[in-house]
Structures are given as structure tokens and as C-alpha cells.
Design goal:
Layout lengths: L11 H24 L8 H19 L14 H13 L3 H4 L7 H9 L2 H6 L5 E4 L15 E5 L2 E12 L6 E7 L9 E7 L5 E6 L10 E12 L16 H35 L15 H28 L5 H26 L1 H4 L5 H10 L7 H13 L8
Parallel strand pairs: 1-4
Antiparallel strand pairs: 2-3, 3-7, 4-5, 6-7
Helix pairs in contact: 1-3, 3-7, 3-8, 5-7, 7-8, 7-9, 8-9, 9-11, 9-12
InterPro entries: Acyl-CoA_Oxase/DH_mid-dom, Acyl-CoA_Oxase/DH_mid-dom_sf, AcylCo_DH-like_C, AcylCo_DH/oxidase_C, AcylCoA_DH/oxidase_NM_dom_sf
Cofactor: FAD
Enzyme class: oxidoreductase
Length: about 400
């Protein structure tokens, strides 16, 4: 059976709209907010409103019968999120992460919330709080607690590296409801930032994505209604914490798409520099018969294409309700490694233009590194992939 790798026509408007925003809103202010870390990009307020309106229209459209010839094939919200992230990251990854109502916590809500919760939290801007001072990529090591007290949960703990933590109006917090039950007791809670006991302890100073704030949040006897727990409150030891981990199956392909968008920007600039130097890329010639830098460009471009195909597959599987944990990790691992390779090589080939602040190449190289780290490091992704391929559990393969 032939595979059609073209994007469905219904996404044409998404590509056009998001690329225009990247080109005419993000690129002109990219350096401004890189130099003004922690200053909120007010230019994004109107874009946030438009994005929210657009999502409401798209949600209604996705509720209709699929337009594709094969009614069993669905290209829905996950694919659309992928495309939006790719196009807007071509403009600026940090600014994408700063758009109101587009937080990583929103993806968590979409992944595991029940219909009532989806309605209740439909208009929020939610950050996501997972990592703690005592652990990095091991999400099962969560020590923040959520203790049931009548119709409420009382949350205590500290979270670090919370993207948009001081700007979002809500935060999705991972906490354990029973430490003795291990990872099965880890649940996610939607917590309003105005909740008494929730404080922003500090903002981090970072290598890249400086236009996006990264916060440390503290929770001291912060009370939330019991129905703010996403998904089922039951501690199912057989299912472990697959419910909250499903969040990553949705968000990892989106982070991969961010890497792909940034990688494309760097490839385009690298190609322009090669052509200006008199070394055009000729696909009709063997790579080895061309200038060494051209040969390297072709290698990088092929890796970029592979990253994109991995990512499309993961998003398509999510839209079609197919388990995609391995594919989500594959897309994140491949794209994260590739974008750092592309941007570092572009800086190397660009020489003075590559590390000068007169252009964006050096900024892209700084921004790229986080895309190989957050939502699970390269090493964590490889571990997950190995477990899926070998059929091993987390206890068998650590």
C-alpha cells in the first residue's frame, strides 16, 4: 500500500497562518527578548487571543466526519499542534513557549482530562510542573505530595524548571497521593496560580529560550478541589502511572516539531551561506564529489528529513488512538539530537557570522540545546525506546 506523506489540505491554513506569525511577529522581536530575559513579550497578547479563537473553530471542525478518503484515517489535533509548533519554532522557540493559553500543561489536560474537566479548564493557560530538586528526568521519583482532606487535596513540595511558571494562570502539578504505592500513586493536578500557598520562588537565567520564563514553584499546603485531579483518582498498581505518562506521548512529538522548525531555519541559513560562498547544493552529483561543507549539509538535511518523518508518525498514531510511546520517544530523541547537530555545524561553517550577534545563528545554537533536554533527555528517550523494543519493564532495564 502506498503511503502519502503530504499534509492534508485542511492544514494548509494552519501552515500559512503560523508561518506568517513566525515571520512577521517572532523574527523581528527575537533578538529583543533574547537580550531582555524575563521581560514579558506583550506583542504576543493579541496572537494568544487569535490562537484561542482558532483552536475553538478547529475543534468544531475536527468534530465533523474526517475529510480524508479513508474514514478510518484521522489527522486531528495532534497533527495540527505538530504543524503549528514546527512553523512557529522556525521563528523563535522561546516566543512560541510564551504565547498565552498554549502552555505544556494544556497538553497534559488534553491528554488525560475527562469531558467535564476539558470543559472546566478550556480557557486556562497552564504550565506543567514535574521536575524537582531531587531528580531530573526520572519522573517516577516525584516526592511532592497531594493529601486528600475531605473534598480537597493539600499539595506540598517544590518544582523546578517550570516553563511559563510565572506567566501562566494555572499549573499542572505531578504529585504522589500515596508514597508507599510508588509510581502508581503519581497523579496530576490542575492548580490555579492564585491558590494560597503557591509561590514563585525564583526565575532562572538560561543559556537559551530566554524569552520564555523558567520558574521555581513552591507549594505549601496549597488546597485544590478534589475534581482538579486529572483522570482517575484510583491508585492502580497494574497500570502504574501510565495515565500521567500519556502526557509525554502527546507532548514529545510537539517538542520534536519545535526542534524540526528550528533545524529548518538553521538549514536555510546554512544553505544561503554556502551559496554565497560559491558552493551551491547539487542533488544530481554524489555528495562526495562536492565541497566538504556541501557534503555535510546533505547529511544534515537527510537527518532532518528522518526526524520529521518520525515525528509525523508519532502524531498520526496519537490522533488515531494507537499506542505511540516508543514512536514519541523516537521522534524526540532523533529531532533533539539532529537540531543540536545542525545548529552547531551552521555556527562552525558560518565562522564569524555564526557566533556574531548580528545574525540569529548563535542564538539558534543556544536555543537548540534545551530541545534535546526537556520533556526527557536524550538518554531517557533511548532507555524508553530500548524497553519498548526489547519488551522490558522499567524494573528490568534501568
Amino acid at each position: 500500500m502506498a503511503i502519502n506523506l503530504e499534509l492534508p489540505k485542511k492544514f494548509d491554513s494552519t501552515v500559512e497562518r503560523t508561518h506568517l506569525a513566525a515571520e512577521h511577529i517572532f523574527r523581528p522581536i527575537s533578538r529583543k527578548y533574547d537580550n531582555a530575559e524575563h521581560e514579558y513579550p506583550t506583542e504576543l497578547d493579541e496572537l494568544g487571543k487569535l490562537a484561542q479563537q482558532s483552536r475553538q473553530k478547529e475543534k468544531a471542525a475536527d468534530g465533523d466526519k474526517p475529510a480524508e478518503a479513508d474514514a478510518d484515517t484521522v489527522n486531528g489535533p495532534n497533527m495540527r499542534a505538530l504543524i503549528s509548533a514546527r512553523e512557529m519554532s522556525w521563528g523563535d522557540v522561546g516566543l512560541l513557549l510564551s504565547i498565552p493559553h498554549q502552555g505544556l500543561g494544556n497538553a497534559a489536560i488534553a491528554a488525560v482530562a475527562n469531558p467535564e474537566q476539558l470543559e472546566k479548564f478550556s480557557g486556562v493557560w497552564a504550565a506543567m510542573a514535574i521536575t524537582e530538586p531531587s531528580f531530573g528526568s526520572d519522573s517516577a521519583a516525584v516526592s511532592t505530595t497531594a493529601t486528600r482532606d475531605g473534598g480537597e487535596y493539600v499539595i506540598n513540595g517544590e518544582k523546578i524548571f517550570v516553563t511559563a511558571g510565572s506567566r501562566a494562570d494555572h499549573v499542572v502539578v505531578w504529585a504522589t497521593v500515596d508514597r508507599s504505592a510508588g509510581r502508581a500513586a503519581i497523579k496530576s493536578f490542575v492548580v490555579p496560580m492564585t491558590t494560597e500557598g503557591v509561590t514563585v520562588a525564583r526565575l532562572e537565567h538560561k543559556l537559551g529560550i530566554r524569552s520564555s520564563d523558567t520558574a521555581v514553584l513552591r507549594f505549601e499546603n496549597a488546597r485544590v478541589p478534589a475534581d482538579n485531579l486529572l483522570g482517575s483518582p484510583e491508585v492502580d498498581t497494574k497500570k502504574a502511572f501510565a495515565g500521567v505518562m500519556q502526557t509525554f506521548d502527546n507532548t514529545r512529538p510537539v517538542v520534536a516539531a519545535m526542534a524540526i522548525g528550528l533545524g529548518r531555519a538553521a538549514l536555510e541559513e546554512l544553505r544561503r551561506m554556502l551559496e554565497e560562498a560559491g558552493h551551491p547544493v547539487d542533488y544530481d552529483k554524489p555528495a562526495a564529489a562536492q565541497h566538504a561543507s556541501v557534503c555535510e549539509f546533505i547529511r544534515l538535511e537527510s537527518d532532518w528529513e528522518a526526524s520529521w518523518l518520525h515525528t509525523v508518525r508519532a502524531a498520526w498514531m496519537a490522533d488515531n488512538k494507537q499506542p505511540n510511546s516508543a514512536e514519541a520517544s523516537m521522534s524526540k530523541a532523533k529531532a533533539g539530537r539532529t537540531v543540536t547537530d545542525i545548529t552547531n555545524k551552521a555556527v562552525e561553517v558560518g565562522a564569524t557570522a555564526g557566533f556574531s550577534e548580528t545574525q540569529l545563528l548563535e542564538k539558534w545554537a543556544r536555543d537548540a540545546k534545551i530541545l534535546d533536554i526537556f520533556e526527557g533527555t536524550q538518554q531517557i528517550q533511548q532507555l524508553i525506546i530500548a524497553r519498548r523494543v526489547l519488551g522490558k519493564s522499567s524494573a528490568d532495564l534501568k
